[in-house]
Design goal:
- By secondary structure, the protein is of the alpha+beta class.
- Helix content is 30%, strand content 40%.
- A hairpin with a 5-residue loop joins β5 and β6.
Length: 142
C-alpha cells in the first residue's frame, strides 16, 4: 500500500470515528497531527467568530475540536468521498449541527484538506457554508 493510500485510509477512519461518536472523540484526528499542526477555516475575518482564528499546535487543535461539541450537537457527518494525491488528502462530505443554546440546526457541504509531512498532518483547511454558519450564530443583521 502506498503512503498516499495509507494517509487516505487514516483520514477515512478518523472521520468514521468522529461521526460514530458524534464529535465526542477528537483523538482519532489528534493522533494524525504533528505537534506544530496548523488549522485554518474559510470563515473570515477572525474578528467575526472565535472559530475563524487560525490554530497552531496540537493543543490548540484539541481545544478547537472539543469546543465544537460544547456549543453544537452533531446530528450527522457522513463522508461522500476521499481524494488523495501525494501528501494531500481531501475529505468531501456533509455535516448537520444543532446549536445547543437555540436549538437551531444547520446543514452544509463540507470539504477538508489535510496535508501530511513525514506521516503526520501539518496543515488542515476546512471549508463550509459560512452563510449558514453566520445565520446559525446570529452574526447577520436582522
Amino acid at each position: 500500500m502506498s503512503q498516499t493510500q495509507a494517509n487516505a485510509d487514516r483520514i477515512r477512519n478518523a472521520y468514521a470515528q468522529w461521526h460514530a461518536t458524534r464529535g465526542a472523540s477528537p483523538e482519532a484526528f489528534l493522533d494524525l497531527m504533528a505537534e506544530d499542526v496548523r488549522m485554518n477555516t474559510n470563515l473570515a475575518p477572525p474578528e467575526l467568530h472565535p472559530l475563524a482564528h487560525e490554530r497552531t499546535g496540537i493543543e490548540n487543535a484539541r481545544d478547537y475540536l472539543v469546543s465544537l461539541v460544547l456549543h453544537l450537537e452533531m446530528i450527522d457527518f457522513p463522508t461522500d468521498e476521499i481524494v488523495a494525491q501525494g501528501d494531500t488528502v481531501v475529505w468531501i462530505g456533509n455535516c448537520t449541527w444543532r446549536d445547543r443554546k437555540t436549538g437551531e440546526e444547520t446543514r452544509t457541504r463540507k470539504v477538508d484538506v489535510w496535508r501530511f509531512r513525514d506521516g503526520k498532518v501539518v496543515d488542515v483547511l476546512e471549508m463550509f457554508d459560512t452563510l449558514g454558519f453566520a445565520r446559525l450564530n446570529g452574526l447577520l443583521p436582522a
